[in-house]
Amino acid sequence: MAATAAQQDASLLAVLFALIGLAFLMRRYWLQLPWLLLAVVLVLAYAVDIVVAQTLTQRLFLFDMIKFGKEISAITQFSAIFFATPAGKVAIALSAAGVLLLPLALLPRPQRPRLALACFAASAALFLLGSWQPVSMQYVHSNVLQNFVAANFDFGVDKPYSAVFTEKIAHEYVPPALTCESGQSMRPDLIVLTVESLSMHQSQLFGGFRNLMPRLDAIAHAHTYFPDFIANGFTTDGGMIAMITGRAPVPSIGRYQSAQAFAGFDDPHDAIPDIVHAQGYTAHFFTSGDLGFLDKPKWLKSLLFDSWEGAEHPFYNGWKRRHFGAAEDKALYQRFLQWLDARKDDMTPWFAYVLTVSTHPPFINPESDSFDEEGVFRYADAQIGMFYDELVKRDFFKNGILMISGDHRSMSPLFAPEQVRFGDSALARTPFIVVTDLAVPRGAVAGRFSQTDIPSSIADLVNVQSCRTPAQGAFLRGRPQPPEYVLHARGDKRNKVDVYFGPQQAQIVLDGDASHWSGPQPTDWRQILDGVLLDRIRRGVLDENIFDMIVELRTPQQQPVTASPPPQ
After folding, report:
1. What is the pLDDT of residues 519-529, one digit of tens each?
2. What are the sequence ranges of the domains in the chain?
């Protein structure tokens, strides 16, 4: 990363030296001051960008500042946790020093033409260095390798489609044939456990070079696991969209300029609640985090969940809260087990989606309250083991299925062994495990499956007959069937959607009317491409803009509804 970071920052330093040079060139202070102020603003923005990169492996995006600016509570909690870490304390010290030095930076200074020329020469040299393009390493957020100014101008993914292009795609597109088969008509209780940032590199079994998740690996060994599993997105909301609706979270037009994380993915048809309701199930959502973050209740209600609950639930009173107002994973599992025990006399089958929070950056270990990435995943592993043991004690697996997945790969750089083993697809991988005593294959399941296979697999399990698209597989059967292709919306290059088919990988480049296929082509590549583009077009443009968001930030916000319906 070092060469790329130096090259990218050279461009910013070139601008800084040019601004300082202009200040030294001016004789009067009122002509110096604008250039000095611009230089100070650049340095302050650079400092804030460092803090954001340190905590979230993310650039300082103007649209993200506006989009998440309304989440005051989450920002406050997150900042408090960060400033308690060693890196946060350094940030506080540097900020204090910066405030003290700011008046010095804005003091009048004598005209210095020679020094101004020296600054201009340095600026020119740095500009030339900034023009050099090194080969940068693969990274889940390649925009982190850019300077934050350049990153803010890279939003080709949000280009709209013209009316002519839209009409052409709609006229030419032929939907793929569905695969319809006899279902299994079973009625097991179902849990999808989504572990924040769970990744291949944390597991000896899945990644092969780290051993942070021994209990998870042991559970996988004893039951069923998928060594070639793909997360369809790179964020938590993307993972939820894929796992609950069965649709890849390809970004809507305008998504990265909008606070509407779930817009366009709120059709309940063929989502898990719709699938299981038809067979007499109830559907429930559990997390210990703030439901109001990204307005989850609105989305869960649109998908017809019967109940949803988060940090506001009375069970979490007395537990220490961390980022997103969340109690630790241990509390979440204990709350779910309390709910499970309360319905022991209810014979109605149910589906539950459980979302953890403790392993979200900045990776604070609940047992020590320290910044400890390895420790927090060892903690999460122990709690998964506890949850599994408690379900065993309750004989859950006799007629129940637990599916464990990460929401996305962790937002951290690739390890060298990970990159060697998985190549570019390392950015998209997460472990996936199925635990049950019912008749499913044991051990490692061959084939490339993904999060979007979960709804179609449940439909195959509970229905008399089920149908699925070529992008969906079925793994809860005697002979698992992988999908024909898998889509992954990239986080490092947000205008690209990876397409995995067989052993090969290609990309759909999203660029308005210039959108195109890149790489090897399966026989149905045009159909896949047009299907992705038409789906984006039909979801419409998220027309929030920066001015609307600023007005919204200045307007008092009504608190979102966070209370769930009464537990079933």
Report:
1. 999 999 999 99
2. 2-153, 155-176+493-554, 180-254+267-491
